[in-house]
Amino acid sequence: MRDFVYTWVRPILLYALVVFFLVWTVAPVTWIAIMSIQPEINYVAVPPHLSLEQVSLRWYIEMLSQPDVVDSLKNSVIISGVTTVVCLTFGALAAYPLARLNIARKNLFLGISVFARMIPSMVLIIPMFLLMRQLRLLDTYLALIIVYTAFLLPYVIWMLKNFFEQIPYALEAAARMDGCSRLEALFRVLIPVAGPGVVATAVFTFVGAWNEFLFGLILSTRYSVPITVKLSALVSTTFQSDNSLVAATGMLAIIPVVLLVFVLNRFIVRGLVEGIKY
């Protein structure tokens, strides 16, 4: 009986669980993609009547013809990109001593950094709003970049620290013997060797900044509105009567991140596997 359970029942349950989560994750996105290229009458029918002959990109073209939507996409790219660069730069500078140097109470520092991230965003949104208003940074890129960096930096430090610890110390020692300072050894040896891990961390940071909604909703009003906030506004106001248009807008918010993950997929998998080894 035990052999039967381990040979048949357990693998079947595992595969069923994987299929369930795959369908749970992919099905909604697939349906939105279908909605964005089909007339509404096709997918609201029972059963749905999907036709290849009626596939159209006119809803995408209509959305991209609106300057405010394009501006929101540009805002998200700029804010997420700059946040990623800032997080990686400061994260690498913080992760290096934590991974390589014998610093007293460094575990306490790591614990405090994670604890700060565990504070719910709702608790911090009012103080952040008041602080940015005092600094006259409301509705600017800089306000969102500062807030996103503060929330994502602890994760970046933890991930880079683990990746740096995987690198043999002999490589860094050889660079130091050749005349590199610790900073030069970090940027010329450790970061290139930990390249897949750094790329995985960068993608994680970019996606985290791209998907952020609450701070974007409160801290931006007109000029720095990200696409997530813009999508919410469109769904609740202008396009209630055209589901295809709403679906096309949603896909426009998804496509840049999907393309980024698809292009860097090889580095992400390699980086995550190296992290798992740790």
Describe this protein with a few key phrases.
278 residues, mainly alpha, 14 helices, globular
Structure description:
By secondary structure, the chain is mainly alpha-helical. It contains 14 helices and no strands. α4 runs parallel beside α7 (141-165). The radius of gyration is 23 Å and the shape is globular. 28% of the residues are buried. The mean pLDDT is 84.
Explain briefly what this protein structure is.
By secondary structure, the chain is an all-alpha fold.
Helix and strand arrangement:
Layout: H1 2-35, H2 40-43, H3 58-64, H4 67-100, H5 106-118, H6 121-134, H7 141-165, H8 169-177, H9 182-193, H10 195-211, H11 214-219, H12 227-236, H13 243-263, H14 265-277
Helix pairs in contact: 1-13, 3-13, 4-7, 4-10, 4-12, 5-7, 7-10, 8-9, 10-14, 12-13
Compute the average pLDDT.
84
Strand percentage, roughly? under 5%
- Assembly category: single chain
Unreliable stretches: none
- Percent in helix: over 70%
The biggest sheet, with number of strands, parallel, antiparallel or mixed sense and barrel status, is: none
- Globally, the shape reads globular
Distance between the termini: 36 Å
User: Helix/strand-derived class?
Assistant: mainly alpha
Query: Counting H and I runs of at least 4 residues, what is the number of helices?
Result: 14
Secondary-structure element string? HHHHHHHHHHHHHH
